[in-house]
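Morning F.,

Quick status update on the modeling queue. The single chain you submitted on Monday has been processed. Sequence for confirmation:
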Amino acid sequence: MKIRLLPLIAAFIAATPLVTSCLDSEEQQILYDPESSITGFSVGTLHIDRMGKDSNGEDSAYIDTINCSEYPFTIDQINRTIENKDSFPVGTYINKVVTSITYDSGTGILVYRPKGSSNDTIWSSTDSIDFTEPLQFKVYMYSGSMGRPYTVKLNVHQMEPDTIAWKDFTDLSFSEHVSLDKQTALSVDKNIYVFGESNGSTSVWYTTTSSGNPSQWTELTSSVPADIITESAKVWNGKIYFLSGNDSYNLYSLDPATNQFAKEAGITGLTLLVAPDDKLERFYAVKDGEVGYFNSSMEWTSDSPATAIFGNAEGRISSYSEPLSYNDGITRTTILVNSKVETDSALVFQRLSSESAWTEIKQNQAMPNLENISMIHYDGKLYAFGGANSSHTAFDFFYNSTDNGLTWWKTTECMYFPETFKGYYDYGSYSATADSDNFIWIVWGNGNMSRGRINRLGFAPKW
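Structure tokens below.
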């Protein structure tokens, strides 16, 4: 029960020592007892909104309870603030909260000012307190001194942390009458580059992002190589490398710092760029029919034995390299690519840097052979998605793998695509990339873009 401080507080205030300034000011000051501090704060069981299934299998809202006693609260004794660093889940009710508070004045009392009230109330561990607005708590000593007030705030997430949020940018376009096919999107620093084909010619475009917002597309027109193999483009050591040519391919690079193209000397006969490995400065490729890799000095090393393992691969190759958890001197590179053989399974290849050949992974649960398939590394997982095939519609689900492409799971909660993406894909093509701000960018055929990010990856730290 809440107890109003009637004559008790008046007696405390009357007994509080008053000090007159030596400058003859009539201002009166209250002396704060240094021992009148709150030393511990926690809350009990709270209610929360939930979604579940009813007896008919339909979505149904209900109210559940969660034990919040283990949520730590930070007490800032200098600024006299108390709040939970880790916010409570979305939908948590904080209008009826039972608290447990300790304070170092064993002979005093703790009071607070309830929401909407102009009077203080003695705190009790059985009080149900409304924290929908920050409240002030303070300790009174029986000696009459008063501790400085604490502002107590309960933080609740306003967004579901693990859900992805999307935003469309529908006012962008490459150019009038330009729709890019065979796209590859690449994120370098704050720029997103797109290589693509339109009406039989190839082109390169870029947009600069700021706080998650892209600028209008700019086409690179100076010294652009002809006949770019647009699906070959990959980022390696801070530059973009790609193949260009008709009968014989040449290796080119694009420096994002200057947007200048350069023909790479010292290596010829490349027919396929497979995957970069930044840590070991390797670029896996196919040269004159042999599988191997070149280094930053353009020195070529052939696999032994040479194999035609990529013979059934078709289209854009997505890759990811990372050091092994138990030996950071060895990297594992995983690639995902469409299969040109009639099958419902895409191709997954893998290679350790300590090995001399690639291995095709026999997947436990296969990734569907979706049209224009893409794979990104995001939030500690491999995610894959794409257009339609004989048994799937375009952008129906994210598929994720936590075992380096061995097993793929259809993601049915939190990570999802809006229904509008099926229509956007009708523009003819798409490409995707993830940037350093944890945004996923999807570039549609006409230049429009969609930006997605898991909410918690955008939460700013409080401390």
